[in-house]
TrEMBL record:
This is Uncharacterized protein. GO terms for biological process: RNA catabolic process. Gene3D superfamilies: Ribonuclease T2-like. The keyword Nuclease applies. InterPro entries: Ribonuclease_T2_eukaryotic (IPR033697), RNase_T2-like (IPR001568), RNase_T2-like_sf (IPR036430), RNase_T2_His_AS_1 (IPR018188). One of its GO terms (molecular function) is RNA binding. GO terms for cellular component: extracellular region. It comes from Arachis hypogaea (Peanut). Pfam families: Ribonuclease_T2. Keywords: Disulfide bond, Endonuclease, Hydrolase, Lyase, Nuclease, Signal. PANTHER family: RIBONUCLEASE T2, RIBONUCLEASE T2 FAMILY PROTEIN. Belongs to the RNase T2 family.
Length: 233
């Protein structure tokens, strides 16, 4: 009885150590950004030769159900720092159209480095660098958010507005998803510009899961008056 009790406590202690470890996480969030909105917010006045007209990847974030979220995990485990030599020409070629830097002054490589350092390093025990980037691309393609929205007539436009529920339902009823994504907006003259669509996955990056309600301060979850969301061109 006593030894069972000790074993039980050792297991409990081990799991709590794991949970408080900076590199532990509970699920993933794939953040897809609408480039025109991003450019208006972060790079107004600056013009990229061609702003992508499809959702691109902002990041793939290992996350916890409650705060704090893990970040910059290579600070404690230097072996997980970004390794540029792993970014083969093939991988870069695949990433460039779907995970580009949208900031005119920032190269794609700098953007990938920053995302890996802040986020990817925190799931490096499970997903090594190349696999992390490939998984993000795989899911971005598999979801085909652009195609699903188009199917129900939700098309980027300068002034046309859509309701949050129309966008959410378009995504929710797809075969791949069937759960509610997280929408992020930016206020604009009484309307809201759709900024990001975020989809959540289990810790193994296999199953899509319902994103928990985002309780972080300052994030605008597009819960504005109905029919007020613009997906700008
Ligand atoms: P925002 O607060 O504007 O949604 O996000 C700001 C930054 O916080 C993002 O660029 C991202 O790095 C981080 N972030 C936002 N939401 C999450 C989340 O759910 N999990 C993690 N790990 N980071 C997040």
């Amino acid at each position: 009885m006593n030894s069972l009790f000790i074993v039980f406590h050792v297991i409990l202690l081990a799991s709590s150590v794991h949970l408080t470890n900076a590199a532990s996480y509970e699920y993933f969030k794939l953040a897809l950004v609408w480039p025109t909105t991003f450019t208006r917010i972060h790079a107004s006045g600056m013009t990229k030769p061609k702003i992508p007209q499809h959702f691109t990847i902002h990041g793939l974030w290992p996350t916890n159900f409650s705060l704090p979220w893990p970040a910059n995990c290579a600070n404690n485990q230097p072996k997980y720092h970004f390794d540029k030599s792993l970014m083969t020409a093939t991988l870069q070629g695949h990433l460039a159209p779907d995970w580009p830097s949208l900031l005119p002054g920032q190269s794609n490589m700098d953007f990938w480095t920053a995302q890996w350092e802040k986020h990817g390093s925190c799931s490096a025990e499970r997903f090594a660098q190349s696999e992390y980037f490939e998984k993000a691309l795989f899911h971005r393609h598999n979801l085909d958010i652009d195609g699903e929205l188009k199917k129900v007539g939700i098309i980027p436009d300068r002034i046309k507005t859509y309701s949050r529920s129309a966008i959410v339902n378009a995504i929710k009823k797809t075969k791949t998803l069937q759960v509610e994504p997280e929408l992020v907006c930016f206020p604009d003259n009484g309307n809201a510009l759709l900024w990001e669509i975020r989809v959540c996955f289990d810790a193994d990056l296999v199953e899509i899961i319902q994103c928990p309600i985002n309780k972080s301060k300052g994030v605008n979850l597009c819960k504005t008056k109905s029919n007020s969301i613009i997906i700008p061109v």
